[in-house]
Design a protein that fits this description.
It is a single chain. The protein is mainly α. The chain is about 60% helix and about 0% strand. It is globular and about 90 Å long.
């Protein structure tokens, strides 16, 4: 058998060589005949590009769970809690393996791979016995390991080893960007997916470490220049220490420094807390823009988004819409095209007034529907959630909601949904508007496609779906919905069960076939048994009216 494989392999290799020789001869003849041959430029490909190309040819199977879950009925999650627990448990096992590797490096002296793969080796522990120099610090900074960089810097200082100003600046950039602490590794994809929502809730909460290493390092720099001020201002503003950031901005201006464009953008954002009232905030923005103009610094996309972000905090002011349009017009003069974050802020500014409906979302969709979208700002991930929420509460339009959903599903746009929380809120609003505006058949089309592997309805949405079935007298769907209610562990929700039972009682018409009546009778018995079983396991509960 092995000889057969070897013979086939050699035959294939010979065929490949012959083809290569033929193509070489063809190229030589073409060159001698004066025919110009255009060789395309080399495109840098990642190791997974071929897999991605193959994957793009296959449509999603709505009956299959995400590939990260084991293809086993007992290990496929059927609730939001299980989705989170199963996904994080796999990474927890990998993290445990990393912990053992770092705690007991003496047990792993064998060579795992050649050439060596750094990830497979224990973490280096730096202490006073290590032979360190500035180059070692540079390597650690390049790897973005904050804790090790701080430790090595302190050891070099103890040994009185001189550190260049460039290295100090690189270290300051690192600790300011990550707020003096190690960032979550890129390998922990699921943890990032489920914890990003917590970071979004801290959007304007001050999390800057005021007495941290970044401030200590900045204070030890003998003559801080514009770069040092720019770095520390950006770090403070990123973690919402706006007052100190604004004070340093004023200090840099007094010294005559021209800051980086990102530092000016951060200074604009400080208006959120350092200024009160819409007029004062707008005046603050104008002063910084004037300073930028006098310093010869042109605005960029992040300048536009910083201004719009401040305007969202004064959206109730009637002038905020005028200021927003003025800012967009100014950006166009610099050939700056708004991104999804810009449109997200515009939705907040123009649609805060519930009395006067704004159709700005329709204008935005007209602009982005045919475009290939990519992330340009961290706030881009908030657009689709905000757009669907706008369709539900502000415009109350199913047609526009379907347009938003169509844009989300185009190409790679789904990557812009953000995190698990954003995805859940998006589909919550989407199903709510489907229940309020469309037929049962249309609703169930999306329900069967998205539930439970993409979205698991919250109890409030499940109740809305049951109400929709009741209005349409879709009694044939009651068994399926009850089965899903049990699967989602929502059988203890009184409003859902009451709504379901009321609907069954109201829609049991005499004209129904005997088979349907029997199915509803069996379903009623199943619901009653489930209630009684829950009474026994969970103790006394409120009486159900059946």
């Amino acid at each position: 058998m092995l000889n057969n494989y070897r013979t086939a392999f050699l035959r294939k290799s010979n065929e490949t060589i012959q083809l290569f020789r033929l193509s070489s001869n063809t190229l030589e003849k073409s060159s001698s005949n004066g025919i110009k041959i255009d060789i395309p430029k080399y495109i840098n490909r990642s190791s997974t590009d071929i897999l991605k190309a193959i994957s793009s040819t296959i449509q999603r199977d709505p009956t299959a769970a995400h590939y990260k879950y084991h293809d086993d009925p007992y290990l496929i999650p059927v609730s939001n809690f299980q989705k989170r627990a199963y996904a994080l448990s796999q990474e927890s096992g990998r993290k445990a393996a990393h912990w053992i590797l770092n705690q007991h490096p003496e047990l792993f002296n064998h060579k795992v791979a050649f050439p060596p793969i750094e990830k497979f080796y224990p973490k280096v522990v730096y202490d006073e016995n290590c032979d360190l120099d500035e180059n070692e610090l540079k390597i650690i900074i390049e790897k973005a390991i904050v804790s090790d960089a701080i430790a090595v810097y302190n050891l070099l200082k103890k040994k009185n080893i001189e550190i260049s100003s460039d290295t100090q600046q690189s270290l300051l950039e690192l600790v300011c960007f990550y707020n003096n602490q190690d960032n979550l590794e890129e390998d922990w994809i699921e943890e990032r997916w489920y914890t990003q929502a917590n970071n979004n809730r801290e959007e304007y909460r001050n999390t800057w470490k005021s007495n941290g290493f970044a401030m200590t390092l900045f204070s030890t720099i003998k003559s801080p220049n514009s770069h040092h001020y720019s770095i520390i201002i950006q770090g403070m503003a990123k973690y919402n220490q706006f007052e100190e950031a604004y004070n340093l901005y004023k200090e840099a201006n007094e010294k005559g420094f021209v800051l980086s464009i990102n530092a000016y953008n951060s200074a604009i954002k400080t208006a959120i807390y350092v200024k009160e009232g819409a007029d004062h905030k707008w005046l603050h923005i104008q002063e910084i823009l004037t300073q930028m103009h006098n310093s010869g610094v042109s605005m960029n996309l992040y300048t536009l988004n910083s201004i719009l972000s401040v305007l969202t905090t004064m959206a109730t002011n009637s002038e905020s819409k005028k200021y927003a349009l003025k800012t967009i017009a100014e950006a166009k003069q610099f050939d700056i095209e708004p991104c999804l974050a810009s449109y997200y802020y515009l939705l907040q500014i123009f649609c805060s007034d519930k009395k006067n409906k704004s159709t700005i979302l329709v204008d935005i969709l007209n602009l982005i529907e045919e475009k290939s979208l990519s992330i340009k700002d961290l706030a881009d991930i908030n657009f689709f959630t905000a757009a669907m929420e706008n369709c539900r509460y502000h415009l109350q339009s199913i047609d526009i909601a379907l347009r938003v959903h169509s844009v989300l599903l185009k190409k790679k746009n789904y990557n812009l949904i953000g995190d698990s929380y954003n995805e859940s809120v998006y589909y919550r609003n989407f199903f709510a508007i489907l229940c309020q505006n469309e037929s049962v058949e249309f609703l169930m089309k999306y329900y069967n496609d998205l539930v439970p592997h993409i979205y698991i309805p919250e109890p409030a949405i499940t109740e809305l779906i049951v109400k929709t079935l009741n209005v349409a007298a879709a009694v044939e769907l009651y068994p399926k919905i009850w089965s899903d209610i049990l699967m989602f562990d929502q059988a203890d929700r009184e409003p859902i069960i009451t709504e379901l039972i009321d609907g069954m009682a109201q829609n049991l018409f005499p004209s129904f076939e005997q088979s349907i009546k029997e199915k509803l009778g069996l379903l009623s018995g199943t619901i009653y048994d489930a209630i009684e079983e829950r009474k026994e396991t969970d103790g006394p509960v409120q009486c159900w009216e059946i």
